[in-house]
């Protein structure tokens, strides 16, 4: 009778330990769906500056011009990029496009810039298209 | 890194253009190469896919196509965006070399 009580107690303890383990496992389990593989910055820069990426389009309004650096914004987001000294600048109006010089770009102009990423992760404007003048 | 991805995902960057020859296709994941560099792009389910060359099913010109018609060796122009993890997603594909 005493042995039966001991065996019964051991079984109860074992079941309780098992259930506690299952409960803890469920509670502490890793949510794999939350794990996101993020590309290292250097890898992303290398990919974006690689040969298959022919261009990164930039669109927005000129906020500021400092030397050949242009701050361009769109929907409350802005970036600064340097326009290459060799970049061609075009102005398009009435279906016609004419080549102009960098100095003709003004604050408020709406630009589309074809840029590329350099190996150090900077965007460099290779060609600039002014489509409209927006009075601010 | 977050800064770079947030810039690439911002409204200032409407799209990124890639060009190359298809070297591998794994489901909707396409790897392209150009001048010995490689890029892998996940083509979105709703991506607009078109071919510029004529084939037996389509007349010459730009035609609507689908991902199953893209083959290793095809030359593609893919307009892509970057997701929050830095992966590339193709929004539109032009296939220059379907025959």
Describe this structure in words.
The complex is a heterodimer of chains A (136) and B (99). Helices cover 26% and strands 46% of the residues of chain A. Chain A is α+β, with helices and mostly antiparallel strands and 136 residues long. Chain A has a domain at 54-133: Beta Barrel (OB fold (Dihydrolipoamide Acetyltransferase, E2P)), CATH 2.40.50.140. Chain B has a single domain, classed as Copper binding periplasmic protein CusF (OB fold (Dihydrolipoamide Acetyltransferase, E2P)). In chain B, a hairpin with a 2-residue loop joins β1 and β2 (29-34). In chain B, 27% of the residues are buried. Chain A binds chain B through residues 36-41, 43-45, 47-48, 50-60, 72-75, 77-79, 121, 123, and chain B through 1, 4-5, 7-8, 10-20, 32-39, 82, 84-88. β1 (53-66) of chain A pairs antiparallel with β1 (15-26) of chain B.
What's the quick description here?
The complex is a heterodimer of chains A (136) and B (99). With 136 residues, chain A is α+β, with helices and mostly antiparallel strands.
Would you spell out the secondary-structure blueprint of this structure?
The complex is a heterodimer of chains A (136) and B (99).
Chain A: H1 2-28, H2 41-48, E1 53-66, E2 69-74, E3 77-93, E4 96-100, E5 109-117, E6 123-133
Parallel strand pairs in A: 3-6
Antiparallel strand pairs in A: 1-2, 1-5, 2-3, 3-4, 5-6
Chain B: H1 2-8, E1 15-26, E2 29-34, E3 37-51, E4 63-64, E5 75-82, E6 88-95
Parallel strand pairs in B: 3-6
Antiparallel strand pairs in B: 1-2, 1-5, 2-3, 3-4, 5-6
Strand ordering within the main sheet of chain B: 1-2-3-6-5
Number of helices of chain A: 2
Question: How far apart lie the N and C ends of chain B?
Answer: 41 Å
Q: How large a portion of the residues of chain B is in β-strands, by DSSP E?
A: over 45%
> What shape does the CA trace of chain B take?
globular
H/E topology pattern of chain B: HEEEEEE
The mean pLDDT of chain A is 83
By oligomeric state, this entry counts as heterodimer
Number of helices of chain B: 1
Q: What is the CA-atom radius of gyration of chain A, in angstroms?
A: 31 Å
Name the strands of the widest sheet of chain A in spatial order.
1-2-3-6-5
* Number of DSSP-assigned strands of chain B: 6
Low-confidence stretches of chain B: none
Structural class of chain A: alpha+beta
Specify the CATH class of one domain in chain A: Mainly Beta
Proportion of beta-strand residues of chain A: over 45%
Show unreliable segments of chain A. Answer: 30-36
CATH architecture of one domain in chain A: Beta Barrel
Radius of gyration of chain B: 14 Å
CATH superfamily of chain B: Copper binding periplasmic protein CusF
Largest sheet of chain A: 5 strands, mixed, barrel
